[in-house]
Amino acid sequence: MSDDWQRMSALALGNGIGSGAIDPRALTAYFLERIEAADRDHAIYLRLTAARARAEAEAAHARAAKGMRRSPLDGVPISWKDLFDSAGDVTSHGTPALAERVATRDAAVLARATRAGLVCLGKTNQSEFAFSILGLNPQLGTPPNPFDESTARLPGGSSSGAAVSVSRGLAAAAIGSDTGGSVRVPAAWNGLVGLKTSFGRLPLDGALGLSTSMDTVGPLSRDVADAAALFAVLDGRVGGGTRPAPDLAGVALDRARFALPATIVWESLDPAVEATTRGAVERLRGAGCIIEEAPVPEFGTAEDLVGRYGPYHAAECYALWHDAIETRPNLVYTPILERIRSGGHLSALDSERAKQGLAEAAARLHARIRRAGVLLLPTTAIGAPPIAALEADIETYRATNVAILRNTRLANYLGCCALTLPCGHDGNGVPTGLMLMAPPGEDERLLRLGYAMEPVLAAA
To answer: CA separation (Å) from 248 to 4, 169, 374, 451?
Structure first.
């Protein structure tokens, strides 16, 4: 049975622990051994927390033997992006500039997961300071996308190691962060489900930041049921919480209403990505979904505001990390250093104008979605490019970063929650995703819709 553990969902592993078919100690040892064998250059996991993982697995075994499991995921090993503090361990935000930073306590979401019995395998690689959607990290290594064996392609970022840890069977699931698409892009390119939660829904205490107005925590998982179970844990619903996990049953697709934005997000798509995502839309129509094209002028408004006043989130990042990057700028990858420093040139007036304008546009968009239906759009406009091309040319790096961010960052700018679902593969065999967007606070609604849509999208 252990030969299948790396392919099983987190909930299936949890069920095996609950039934006595899986010993969480053996399960944790299995994943640690796989990581040691497959990640010798530490491009996926920057560091393992092996002693902690074994101790947590031992405790999970004892609870299971007594029938006192804390949650359906008690004893299941997962990975954590290297911006979540874990007590006594280095949390470096994926950069050598913070390589000596040792956390004194667990991040709030990690503490919740630990109370629910999950096992912490270690800290996964990411773009430095989480400030790139590509997942490229020349400083610490870039985990290649596992779906193209002939060409080393981007994993997506900034939660690059998180996604690859799951797609390569080195964790049952992963926890990442999303400020402009950093859960959704790597999830899409690794054939995973990725949830961008509503801003403020999950605590950021102990999570190293990029943007104080847009950072969110979210799971990357094999399926929607796992994403919902992890969301419940991170939200404090299980493992000591009082609220139930989301009920995923009961959505009838023949009464589900969606809108295809007629602005920006379906433009200039890579032909293979467009064919795959439009094919997914047609399968949903065939399943009875009501899908109509709708104008979404707020997308253009958001792009115009940020273009006019500047990337206010860069100013927030510069305020957070000014001392770290200016003390030792030679330790930060040049394109990342430039992006963070660009925030130092923004005025407070322009930043506030951008935020106020976006808040007004967000209110209009949320009302529009409630009238027209949850939005459906491609998660990314293009497939995963080769790593070498971006490492060799900074201008290509910059242009590609902007192109990949285009669709996902709209949810962050406009205060939406979003969910990406696997819907097929591009011309290079790399997965691609279909994204749902809804107003804030509708995370559970997206999970229920995604759960109903999942088998339809899988029938490619």
So the answer is: 26, 25, 17, 6
From 182, 211, 221, 351, active-site residue: 182
- Give pTM, 2 decimals: 0.97
- Residue 276 predicted with pLDDT over 80: yes
Coil, helix or strand at residue 376: strand
Q: What is the CATH number of domain 253-458?
A: 3.90.1300.10
Q: Do the beta carbons of residue 379 and residue 433 sit within 8 Å?
A: yes
User: Where in 87-237 does DSSP place strands (E)?
Assistant: 119-124, 174-178, 193-196, 216-221
Whether 211 is catalytic is no
Question: What is the architecture, at CATH level 2, of domain 2-234?
Answer: Alpha-Beta Complex (3.90)
Alpha-helical regions (H) of 310-393: 312-327, 334-342, 348-372, 387-392
Question: Per residue in 113-139, pLDDT tens?
Answer: 999 999 999 999 999 999 999 999 999
C-alpha span between 263 and 298 (Å, rounded): 9
Q: Does residue 79 carry a catalytic annotation? A: no
CA dist., res. 308 & res. 306, Å (int): 5
Q: Per the structure block, which two tokens stand in for 93?
A: 């935000």
Identify the bridge partners of residue 196 per DSSP, sorted by sequence position. Answer: 418
The predicted-structure confidence for 283-322, as pLDDT tens digits, reads as follows 999 999 999 999 999 999 999 999 999 999 999 999 999 9
Instruction: Name residue 418's beta-bridge partners.
Output: 196, 437
For residue 158, whether the previous peptide bond is cis, meaning omega lies within 30 degrees of 0, is yes
Put residue 191 in one of left, alpha, beta given phi > 0 → left and psi -120 to 50 → alpha: left
CATH 3.90.1300.10 maps onto the chain at 2-234, 253-458
81 is catalytic: yes
Confidence of residue 244 (pLDDT cuts 50, 70, 90): low
Query: Which of 86, 92, 158, 198 is the catalytic position?
Result: 158
> Which one of the listed residues 71, 81, 92, 211 is annotated catalytic?
81
DSSP code, position 92: -
pLDDT interval class at 246 (50, 70, 90): confident
Say if CB 87 and CB 52 are below 8 A apart.
no
407 phi/psi in degrees, rounded to 5: -80, -45
- Report the Cα 431 to chain-centroid distance in Å: 15
Spatial distance between the Cα atoms of 172 and 14, rounded to a whole number of angstroms: 10
The model's confidence at residue 20, banded by pLDDT at 50, 70 and 90, is: very high
